[in-house]
Design a protein that fits this description.
The chain contains no helices and 11 strands. By secondary structure, the protein is an all-beta fold. The relative contact order is 0.19.
Length: 158
């Protein structure tokens, strides 16, 4: 993100919340689900907090699950969705961006029982925006190109 001639650091994640709902395919080798992910972060400039960014993601994902009949299940997948981002900073104004995104995810799940699993993984999403948007109150332009998140979750299967 560029502000005038100053370069800000990429936001550091300071909060993450998410929820998924979906279904497994017959045989358990795949899954399709809707995800809501809400995260917030801060960008620093000269070692001071400069920008707060809140991002919401609405995703439709599909994963292929390796070793579906075993206790440890690695997986890979892809997703499409919609992003809403809102950034604000003292002296910088505010910036809003929304639009479509595409991405991939990978991870590993540990099946503890027929109904409970623990999972950890990474998700990378790239925005499909082609234009930079102006910050309110300035002629500075910026754009959020991609989002990468690492997560751990507990899951319940009906």
């Amino acid at each position: 993100m560029n502000v005038g001639s100053d370069k800000l650091q990429s936001p550091d994640a300071s909060g993450l919340f998410g929820a998924d709902i979906g279904f497994y395919t017959a045989g358990g080798k795949g899954r399709i689900y809707y995800s809501y992910q809400k995260m917030s972060g801060e960008s620093d400039h000269n070692d001071k907090k400069a920008i707060d960014t809140d991002v919401s993601l609405h995703l439709i994902s599909a994963d292929y699950i390796f070793r579906a009949d075993k206790t440890i299940n690695p997986f890979i997948g892809a997703h499409v969705g919609y992003m809403i981002a809102d950034s604000k900073g003292d002296g910088y104004g505010s910036y809003k961006q929304s639009g479509e995104l595409l991405g991939v995810q990978a991870g590993v799940a540990w099946r503890m029982s027929d109904h409970f699993t623990a999972e950890m993984g990474a998700r990378h999403s790239a925005t499909q925006s082609k234009e930079q948007e102006a910050w309110s109150g300035s002629n500075t332009k910026s754009e959020l190109n991609s989002i990468t998140s690492f997560y751990m979750s507990a899951n319940y299967r009906f």
